[in-house]
Amino acid sequence: MPPSELNSIANYSGLNLTALGTCVAGSTSAIDAQGYLASYYNITSTPVAIADCQYLAIPQTAGSAICYANGSICR
Prior knowledge:
- The protein is mainly alpha-helical.
- About 55% of the residues lie in helices and about 10% in strands.
- The protein has a two-stranded antiparallel sheet.
- The termini are far apart.
- About 0% of the residues are buried.
């Protein structure tokens, strides 16, 4: 997804972009490791989500990880 499109979605969703930037900056080791493994195994997309800059989850459980990280989202 192009950065401009991702930025538009983030702006539309009302995300706190400062907190998101801090989150991404603090998750670089996990993101780099995923990229390295994907490159090593010739995988073009990594099916892992990082929830609340703390929890790694596969797509099937990403919703549960997000709810666990911030229960107010899922009420």
